[in-house]
Specification:
This protein is of the alpha/beta class. The chain contains 9 helices and 12 strands.
């Protein structure tokens, strides 16, 4: 679905972001794109969507160069940015304006999603920011593109809306679709994603499936910090001390704490890269 080969990119000559970035993503997966602020998550999505262009290297998305913006490429991709902008028009008219650009747009599904997300059918200027964000989410899903890119989709959503968002996203996954969700609110999406991508300082640290992570690492709770001394990484909280260590060979699926995994991957970058690059 997506291949990046030796991508170098920076917004200026003095401010490089990526250097020789390589990445391969497949359809029928939902990817969680994680990273600290400034790690390059939004830029990576924009590169895939053809909104910015690499200084060097090659990008192939659905077999095409995004920079060429061919009609058959654009009609098969929907990008929802972190900060959405909407015109002063009725919600339904907004959907009707976008529908011609997406041959598989499903207006009935669009209406259904608006109802599930409790978006009033009013002029967009009368809606809250969260309601406008949900309008974009409904539009993106109803467009039925094979590639759906979402940048911080839960920003601006209240707790019930986040729960409904997870339910809706789970229902729209199919074998021909690739979904990439960039977020720093990891716990909002931990029930949705199949694979984890972690960026740090413009470098890809992790590209791994949850099953692989569960086979290679064990996530455990300890009574004290001293009891977790042997862990690769550990954190203490009000609930106790939580740590992870390499699995002892038990292939049984275990519970994964994505936030703990992310923090460990940043703290022990080279170790984790070596662990998950091994075959």
């Amino acid at each position: 679905m997506i291949e990046l080969h030796n991508i170098t990119f920076g917004y200026s000559k003095k401010q490089g972001l990526y250097s020789n970035l390589n990445l391969r993503l497949e359809k029928n997966f939902t990817y969680g794109l994680l990273g600290k602020n400034g790690a390059g998550k939004s830029t990576l999505l924009k590169l895939m969507a053809g909104l910015v262009f690499p200084n060097s290297g090659k990008i192939s998305v659905m077999g095409q160069n995004p920079a060429k913006k061919s009609p058959d490429f654009l009609e098969n991709l929907f990008f929802i940015p972190e900060v959405v902008d909407t015109p002063e028009m009725d919600v339904l008219d907004f959907g009707d304006d976008y529908a011609p650009f997406y041959p598989r747009f499903d207006k009935e599904l669009f209406l259904q999603l608006l109802n599930q997300l409790e978006v009033p059918l009013k002029n967009l200027k009368e809606l809250s920011y969260g309601q406008r964000k949900k309008t974009w989410i409904a539009l993106g899903i109803a467009s039925n593109t094979n590639l759906l890119l979402l940048d911080e989709p839960t920003n601006g959503l209240d707790i019930p809306s986040k729960r409904q968002f997870r339910k809706i996203m789970a229902s729209c996954i199919n074998e021909d679709r690739c979904i990439i969700i960039s977020t720093h609110q990891i716990r909002d999406l931990d029930s949705l994603i199949d694979r984890i991508l972690i960026l740090d300082e413009g470098e890809l640290v992790i590209n791994a499936g949850l099953e692989t992570i569960a086979h290679k690492l064990s996530f455990q709770k300890f009574d004290s910090e001293e009891a977790a001394d042997h862990c690769l990484y550990a954190e203490s909280s009000m609930g106790g001390t939580y740590g992870l260590l390499e699995n002892n060979g038990d292939e049984k699926w275990g519970n994964i704490d994505i936030e703990l995994f992310f923090n460990a991957s940043i703290a022990h970058k080279k170790y984790m890269q070596n662990l998950f690059s091994s075959k």
